[in-house]
Amino acid sequence: MAELCSSLAFQVNRSEPQLIKPAKPTPRETKRLSDVDDQQGTRFHFPLILSYRNKENQGDPVTAIRDALSRALVYYYPVAGRLREGPNKKLMVDCNGEGVLFIEADADFTLEELGDTIRPPCPLLDELLFNVPGSDGILGCPILLVQVTRLKCGGFIFASRVNHTMFDAVGLAQFLNAVGEMAQGTHSPSIPPVWERELLDARHSPRITCTHYEYEHISNPESSFLLTKDEGSLVQRSFYFGPQEIKAIREKLPGHLSTSSRFELITACVWKCRTLSLRLNPEEIVRLSCAVNARGKHNTLCLPLGYYGNAFAIPTVVSKVGLLCENPLGYAVELVKKLKSKMSEEYMKSLADLFVIRGRPPLPMAWNVLIVSDNTRTGFGEVNFGWGKPIFAGIAKSVNLITFYVQDNSLKEEYGVVVPICLPFSCMEAFEKEFKRMTLEPVLEEINGGV
């Protein structure tokens, strides 16, 4: 039975959800998640949207993706299982082959009509990614939900929601690229998946050797602007950082910081604008955490190619509100650089040990905390089901204290970055004002007074 729903002037007609199982029999076993996977901070689902243009004579995207998903699950068979808790609430996967949720849908609008509204926070998210009742729990629920929506123009939207304990963004992109390869006719993924979650388990003699501000309680002189305050009036808006905005920010910095990366500039700008908008006590402590990937040559962790579990940490820096708000932007940029330099093999091992020693402490839930995750280079923009690369690919919305950087491909010469921000309604106008001021032409005294 189909269900008709509407938002704005658009309508999406969905078929009943179905379970997609692996195309062939898979091992029936139990696999433990790593101590980094099952931290408290990953026990949620995050949504992703990819949009594709029409391609003549390519066939039906729903059929192609549904079949490819089933064949990819033969190799990624834990994704078709269900999470259970063992002793001490240790998460493990019951590899039972029950399958992932899949929804076929049709919409009465085109990509052109949708326009920029697909950017986070997408107002059509509930229609493009239906929350099947009872499917969004951590235990005993499908690990992945996929909805493929055909559009009137012949294009389509691929939306998914995934349990973060199974994948980080890079791991999910690896899986989706494998689905894309199979949709184009390959028999196996070009990068074979690697489980080996024990590589990010705590050491046999766990010991916390690094400072992890992200899990420390910080006492403030006044009660912090708690997450629960104004929660009923939270709003989300996106802010665009294109070449002009980046140039304006860069020109506000002193010479020794003028070569800072785009990530460093955006993060410093967002952190300062957000802190100013919250109107906190100048003596209060604010903290910034950035998700940093542990893969690659920049550290000695040496995770194998194909590892698709959570392999990131969120190193953190702290500052007094007054210092962050009253100093030139270069102060914030220097702190972002310091934060990135913390990532190392030892930091990851210390983090896994912390989760075991302290019993998976939750992340602080107060507005003086900001967590950012750069998803512009994860591989989402490369996922090709046979219709070419997506014209939009990114996380669909921010999650309270967490904001995800999303790649925007509307400019051919250089892509921009879309940053969704979630704030109480009373603070969003102030954020917009500070953002406009920060991304305009530089002020002379601000440059001369840089750190």
Report on this model:
The chain has 451 residues and is of the alpha+beta class. The protein has two domains: 14-200, Chloramphenicol acetyltransferase-like domain (Chloramphenicol Acetyltransferase, 2-Layer Sandwich), CATH 3.30.559.10; 213-376 and 397-439, Chloramphenicol Acetyltransferase (2-Layer Sandwich). Helices cover 25% and strands 24% of the residues. It has eleven helices and 19 strands. Strands 1, 2, 3, 5, 8, 9, 10, 11, 12, 15, 16, 17, 18 and 19 form a 14-stranded mixed beta sheet that branches. Strands 4-7-6 form a three-stranded antiparallel beta sheet, with no helix packed on it. A hairpin with a 2-residue loop joins strand 1 and strand 2. Helix 6 crosses helix 10. The chain starts with a strand and ends with a helix. Residues 1-7 and 443-451 have low confidence and may be disordered. Keywords: Transferase. This is Methanol O-anthraniloyltransferase-like. InterPro entries: CAT-like_dom_sf, Plant_acyltransferase. It holds the Pfam family Transferase. Belongs to the plant acyltransferase family.
